Amino acid sequence: MSPKKEPDDPNDMYGFSSDEEAAHEPLNPAAEALLKRSYALLDEIQSFQRSLRRENAENAVVLGSFANLVKSEHRTIQGLCLEAPSPETKRSSHSLSAVNLPFYEAVWAAAKSTTGITALHKTFWYQEKELSSKDQPGGAKLKRKKSSVVVDVVAQNGLQWIKVNLLTPKRLLFDIAKAGWEEGRLISDDEDDYQSSYSTNSLAISQLALTKIASTLVLAASHERVQYLHPSVYFIFPRLPPPTDKTPEVKAFIDELTSLGVHVQCGPPSPDSEVFKPRRISELVEDISTPFRRRSIPVTSPVNLDVSILLSLASDICNCKSIKLDPGFTPHEAITHQIESEKTEPFLVKHVWAVLEGRDLVCSQVVADRFKSIVGILAGEKEAERADLLMHPREDGSNVDRFQKLCEHPLPEKGLRLPVSILGDDSGEEESEVMKRIKAKLSAVNRSAFMGGWKAGLTTVTSNKTVARMVEGLVNIDEVGPDFYVIDAARSLVGYKGKKIKV
């Protein structure tokens, strides 16, 4: 018996090829074409997910819901491929026209044209506006209803909400007509050939479903804040031409959206666009996997450092690639964990250099004094040397060169500017209500670190997540609090002297 022959068609997706039967023409060529597109889309999304996992950044992007929608659509198209079109029924062609694949492709294209993606197909909840008593029977107020809205792409690290719609000029005219603007309208079968003998009816446009969705998104965005800023809402219409005088309906519709505070992109993303520019998967992953690039607003220069960052800069744990401990010395459990973490995720290289490089470094006098006090109690020999280089200038300006000799990792490409300077005294400055409220909750050292940087208009870099969360919680929705860059990890001095101290 001869060995079993492999299928003639390596791309046979259904296993139809066999010893007796060669691969044949697909039952539904139109569905087959869609299936190839859905394979390509699904493959690219899964490649993106794998790349994020390799960079330990899969939790940085909420992608599961969108990926599941694409998978479901893929299975639907697979089923249509097994259904031959029938002259007696239009079911197959109708099913194909109802396929959502073009929309998912457009959403993915929009995601790839921006940076700092944090989610696709994400639901946001918001409170609807409360109706006044005069609008209600009996004069009673209605409780505000909690509603939700879906954002297709959340980008720019949370500050950009993108809604994608495959609206065409012909469909826009139809919707306007349906909203009450039908007289005198000539709608051609050709989407590029449409005209109107009437001026645009703004009332009809304001009643369009998309206009109402835009209004809802703007309202929902007003309930969300990222680093004290509200997200901006963007609409992308890949199939809608840029508005011109020859397309008054499109122009009026776009004008209505922009009047609501929405940014609009018509047509596919352009390489010359300042906001939306096609990017490779590798570029997207690099943006997401680099913590510094996930920040929503620029970091200032100088940057203000708190005690936790100064300690990490001096620590043997993150400056040495390996640490040899004396047999009789048992470090604290937290220190052991930091040493183990450093093996897979170098703290300075992964988290610190990006935010410090090329920037002047400052700290308050209270922070400097506390840092020196801890160093005097806990620091090993090299840790004390680094601490001295951080805070005291050398006459020959050799702080950076000497620091590099004590650090087994390369210093940042744009340079590490040493020593750290001392911020001026801010005690005489007037304080706002939110400043007073936050100040009252902070310890003396944290008050000096956070309040000093805040009053100077600087970004404060910290590993103190507990204090950062507490400060954010004290800032009301209509207030702006201190700007801080929180590093989601920490490194301490090794504590060779076996003493414990509260930072």
UniProtKB/TrEMBL annotation:
One Pfam family matching this protein: DUF1308
Chain positions covered by the region annotation Disordered: 1-26
Highest taxon of the lineage: Eukaryota
Residue ranges of every copy of the DUF1308 domain listed in the record: 303-392
InterPro entries: DUF1308 (IPR010733)
PANTHER family attached to this UniProt entry: UNCHARACTERIZED DUF1308, UPF0415 PROTEIN C7ORF25
Name recorded for this polypeptide: DUF1308 domain-containing protein
Native organism: Ascodesmis nigricans
